[in-house]
Amino acid sequence: MLWWLQISIKDIIDILLLAVCLYYTYVTLRYSGSRSLFMGIVTFIILWLLISQVLQMRLMGALLDKFVNIGFLLLVIIFQDEVRKILVTIGSAQRWRKIRGLFRDRGEQARVEAAYVAPVVLACMNMARKKTGALIAVQGNMDLTPYQHAGERFLASVNARLIEAIFFKNSPLHDGAMIIAGEKICAAGCILPVASNPDLNKDLGLRHRSALGLSQKTDAKVIIVSEERGTISLAYRGEIIVDITADELRELLSAE
């Protein structure tokens, strides 16, 4: 026991685990437009603990206890997408892939880059030079199959010429998004969720908002080629990096 605080090691571990859970929840909701609601919930929990546990107000404490019991289920329903994302983040194999990457030889890394990263970078650079708009979602740990249903589903190797042909201005799939999973092109002409955050830059077009929308709901890396400016951007985990070079795009796609 830490006698001057009357706190045991178990209590310290308990507090640290709670802090980690709150941190991951806050990070998940940070760019989804739910940050204010999250802060309101945290404030309510603090008031509940103060009234029910510290001040021990019986009437208010009993009412708040009942509300908390029901409120937990309501929160799961309201934040079902965010809860799913948190659980996938916790249970993902990304950390194991990072450890495995330490022991992966350069030949394997070069093979992955040649099969998927290099053709995507080449196609994006060519389309940016021609000012051909494009939206490409690269699947991470979270399955993107639900977003494939609205588009044309097929299975093809990642090829720069094929990507450019799909996003050619007269192509019927030009305005939709392409989804790449498992180093294969799985679908094109897909519709992605549009970000609804009111704090977004008003200059962002529909492609950028769709990329941000998907990156807020999944761990996919979404590439945007601007038809107006001929620039390349990448959205990931609710953030967007604009006007990136070929080397930067290659590095971002290769990163675990």
From TrEMBL:
Transmembrane segments: 12-31, 37-55
Alphabetical list of Gene3D superfamilies matching this protein: DNA integrity scanning protein, DisA, N-terminal domain
Catalysed reaction equations from the record: 2 ATP = 3',3'-c-di-AMP + 2 diphosphate
Example of a GO biological process term: cAMP biosynthetic process
GO molecular function: adenylate cyclase activity; ATP binding; diadenylate cyclase activity
EC number in record: 2.7.7.85
Boundaries of every DAC domain copy: 80-246
Enzyme class (EC, first level): transferase
The organism's place on the tree of life at top rank: Bacteria
Keywords (A to Z) from UniProt: ATP-binding, Cell membrane, Membrane, Nucleotide-binding, Nucleotidyltransferase, Transferase, Transmembrane, Transmembrane helix
Role this protein plays: Catalyzes the condensation of 2 ATP molecules into cyclic di-AMP (c-di-AMP), a second messenger used to regulate differing processes in different bacteria.
Subunit annotation: Probably a homodimer.
Family: Belongs to the adenylate cyclase family. DacA/CdaA subfamily.
Listed name of the protein: Diadenylate cyclase
Source species: Porphyromonas catoniae ATCC 51270
